[in-house]
Amino acid sequence: MNITFHGAARTVTGSKHLIKLKNGKQILLDCGLFQGMGRDTEDLNENLGFVASEVTYMFLSHAHIDHTGLIPKLVKEGFEGKIYCTKGTQDLAAILLEDSARIQVDDVKYLNKRRAKQHLSPVEPLYGPEDAENAIPRLTPVAYNKWIKVDEDIEVMYADAGHIIGSATVHVRITEAGKTEQISFSGDVGRYRDIILKSPETFPQADYIIMESTYGDSLHDDVFNTPDQLLDFVMKTCVEKKGKLIIPAFSVGRTQELLYFLNDLSNDGRLPKIPVYVDSPLSREATQVTKRHPEGFNNRIQKLMQVDDDPFDFPGMHFIQSVDESKALNDNPSPMIIISASGMADAGRVQHHILNNISDKRNTILIVGYCEPHSLGGRLMRGSKNVRIYGDDYDVVAEVGVMRSMSAHGDYDDLCQFLSCQDPKAVKTLFIVHGEYDVQQEFQRRLLKKGFTDVQIPAMHQTFNLG
Q1: Mean pLDDT in the chain?
Q2: How confident is the model over 427-452, as a mean pLDDT?
Q3: CA angle 93, 3, 370 (to 5 degrees)
Q4: Longest dimension (CA), the chain
Q5: Which uninterrupted H or E stretch holds 181?
Q6: Could you tell me which residue ranges the Beta-Casp domain spans (predicted)?
């Protein structure tokens, strides 16, 4: 048995890990889209690194596009098996994949217009809506905390990861030559003091662990100060400067957190009467799915819902649907808050809001989560004075703010707490994935000090023998 890392290897995106059994069966853990990798992004997404038709089963950790976004391509290229996931992930992934397919088509249309001007031949999208439609029926929901016998050699169990609705850690028991070993995949680990979701769950002793490391070298700010921090940006930008507060936010998870905090401020009577626009049809759908899965909410939200039946809605909040409505926001000079996808500001409507507002010092672009360093959000976080958007250069005149308390990823304390249910000496190898290489090296040192004896940081397409 071996495992090969075809994504999220010394980077935070494109999660894709392939387990091969001696009898020829292949298990794929996630099939994510690479995002924000600069000029390498297209090539990384074009080549899976393996033959799709040879994959037997897929086990999906959660719905985020960097974990699901190449599933339609996987099916398009010949995968015919089931994709196991939780019910929450099934519901979210369905709308995310349909949206991703539209984005693939729209982005290629825009790109081909530019290529035509350069007398270059047109290119094809990675996949289209039909490919997403073909992939969605393969999503097969399973319950949390129940071992599922996939076949005579393979069992799988999902445990709550506390990252987004439906997110899970994936635990696979594989039997070869009468010997059973467990491979545990963290997916993305949430926070133990998350404002909305339950904490990550413990899991049985593993022989091998695949561990994310997004924030393996840092601690987050206290999440309970977040409403006050957010209110400071609203007051300074919208009230004092009469400007627009532009917030790039992932449609799944981050947008709902922002709406929850704004609802909290509204309930307390502290939110000024500034209109809030959620400019993402996907965010509206994702918010509806989130509401349908209260079983993922922690006790705090459950109690709140006894007096506030919708913790993601408040007076003055509007969902934007059409492109014309979206464009109208840029023509409206009034103060407002715009929450729009994507979270890394590398695609979607938020790019148009940034390019239309980046040259006005009254405005603020507020980064509220992780951004890959090469993405537009990452460049703004680094303090770039000039950025390129849709092929044109823009001076960064607007204020750029950062709130580090809102990550859905656990920091190194959370990650270590997640692993505390394991006997380090019983883990044969721990593989660190889903992190920048320098962060992974720091996390590796931390884990070695905690007693793990073999901690590896796989390179792209690197294979390791197990057992």
Answers
A1: 94
A2: 98
A3: 45
A4: 70
A5: strand 179-185
A6: 255-380
Q: In whole angstroms, give the CA distance from residue 43 to residue 24.
A: 28
Q: Which residue type does 111 have?
A: L
Asked if residue 189 lies in contact with residue 203, where contact means CB atoms within 8 angstroms, the answer is no
Mean pLDDT across 336-355: 91
DSSP character string of 256-319: HHHHHHHHHHHHTT-S-S--EEEE-HHHHHHHHHHHT-GGGB-HHHHHHTTT-S-TT--TTEEE
**Residue carrying structure tokens 């393969």:** 138
Instruction: Residue 234: count other Cβ atoms within 10 Å of its Cβ.
Output: 23
| Tens-digit pLDDT profile for residues 138-170 | 999 999 999 999 999 999 999 999 999 999 999
* 3-state SS assignment for residue 209: strand
**Cα(438)–Cα(431) distance, rounded to whole angstroms?**
15
At residue 412, the 3 state secondary structure works out as: helix
Distant-in-sequence, close-in-space partners of 396: CB < 8 Å, separation ≥ 6: 358, 380, 384, 385, 386, 387
Name the more confident of 338 and 281. 338
Q: Which domains does the chain carry?
A: 2-218+408-465 (3.60.15.10), 223-402 (3.40.50.10890)
pLDDT in tens, 208-224: 999 999 999 998 876 66
Distance, in Å, from the CA atom of 443 to the CA atom of 5, rounded to the nearest integer, reads 18
Higher pLDDT, 426 or 109: 426
Find, among 160, 224, 151, 228, the residue nearest to 197 by Cα.
Answer: 160
Residue 371: is its pLDDT beyond 90?
no
